[in-house]
Amino acid sequence: MMKTTLTIVALALATSVSAQESPLWMRYCAISPDGSAVAFTYKGDIYTVPTTGGTARQLTTNAAYDTHPVWSPDSKQLAFCSNREGSMDVYVMQREGGTPRRLTTNSNSETPIAFKDNNTVLYTSSIMPSAKSIIFANRMLPQVYEVGTNGSRPHLFSALPMMDISIRPNGDLLYHDQKGYEDPWRKHHRSPITRDIWLRRGGKYTKLTNFNGEDRTPVWAAQGDTFYYLSEEDGTFNVYMRNIDGTGKQQLTRHTTNPVRFLTTANNGTLCYGYD
After folding, report:
1. What residues pair up with 168 in beta bridges, in sequence order?
2. What mean pLDDT do residues 45-74 have?
3. 244 close to 208: Cβ distance less than 8 angstroms
4. How far apart are CA 169 and CA 201, in angstroms?
5. CA dihedral 243, 249, 252, 258 (to 10 degrees)
6. Per-residue CA distances from 268 to 115, 176, 191, 244, 272 (Å)
7. CB 116 within 8 Å of CB 103
8. Could you say which of 71, 73, 158, 178 is the most buried, measured as most Cβ atoms within 10 Å of its Cβ?
9. CB atoms within 10 A of CB 61
10. What is the 3-state secondary structure of 190-215?
11. What residues pair up with 55 in beta bridges, in sequence order?
12. What's the CA gap between 48 and 78, in Å, rounded?
């Protein structure tokens, strides 16, 4: 079995940000694919910190709210969203920071969820671009769009809501569904609209989880058809792993007090998540 290293981002950063002893509300942590750094949001700005620990570096200083950092596959760029022009738009910048480029200009809010490749960002928004998408399109059930990092015209990627996408270079795609509205921060949720994990491969959609509760945030392992995900199956959100055929299921973390959030993985098998 592939060796897995777990990084508890909230604890690793606790003495690094803004010289505070115990900073709170660090969210949307994401480890770089090369495993060298973790990006995260703190007080409306984007930071990075080495995975080995140390001082966090502030990348954005705008008075607006900057959030949801997403790494490019080559670990050289970060996409994020910001309301510096009014509504939330998608921006991209180099991993070292610098002047970001605005990629979307729609008056609705857009949130990046993944890079399709080094030159294309996938993001969610509710625009209703076609009669077919009206079935799903509203503020609660957004579509997925793609836009080039060169600022090219956005295109519809999926009228079907796909959240927390993890995509491979060959196009194999994992996501969790969104069947209706429920506060994403709610814990211990049980209802017909709890989220499940799906695989899209070669145009075919396969449901991978059936737990009567929340299964979220799938991420591909570095090799094989293994993936990691978050589930409340043991009572609170923890990290699990399994194969897409249902075999090899394991619970990797056993937190009981607070939920695990924001699961990401690097190409070397290191997992990163936020806790407490």
Report:
1. none
2. 95
3. yes
4. 12
5. 100
6. 18, 24, 37, 20, 12
7. no
8. 71
9. 10
10. CCCCCCCEEEEECCEEEECCCCCCCE
11. none
12. 10
Measured CA to CA, the distance from residue 254 to residue 186 in angstroms comes to: 19
Which tokens in the block code for residue 122?
A: 């996938």
Six token digits for residue 67: 């959030």
Q: Phi, psi at residue 38, to the nearest 5°?
A: -120, 125
- Judging by DSSP bridges, how do beta strands 45-50 and 37-42 pair with one another? antiparallel
Sign of CA dihedral 157, 163, 167, 170: negative
Phi, psi of 273 (to 5 degrees): -150, 165
Instruction: Decide which of 138 and 200 is more confident.
Output: 200
Q: How confident is the model at residue 140, as a pLDDT?
A: 63
Predicted local distance difference test score (pLDDT) of residue 108: 87
Residue 92 Ramachandran class (φ > 0 left, ψ -120 to 50 alpha, else beta): beta
Is the sign of the CA dihedral 109, 113, 114, 116 positive or negative? negative
pTM of the model: 0.90
In the chain, what is the greatest distance between 2 CA atoms, to the nearest angstrom? 53
Torsion of CA 166, 167, 173, 178, to 10 degrees: 40
DSSP string for the chain:
----EEEEHHHHTTTTSTT-SS----EEEEE-TTSSEEEEEETTEEEEEETT----EE----SS-EEEEEE-TTSSEEEEEEEEESEEEEEEEETTEEEEEE----SS--EEEEEEETTEEEEEE----STGGGGT-SSSS-EEEEEETT-PPPEEEESS--EEEEE-TTS-EEEE---S---TT--S--STT---EEEEETTEEEE----SS-EEEEEE-SSTTEEEEEE-TTSS-EEEEEETTS-S-EE-----SS-EEEEEE-TTSEEEEEE-
When pLDDT is averaged across residues 53-78 and rounded to a whole number, the result is 96
Contact 262, 273 (CB under 8 A): yes
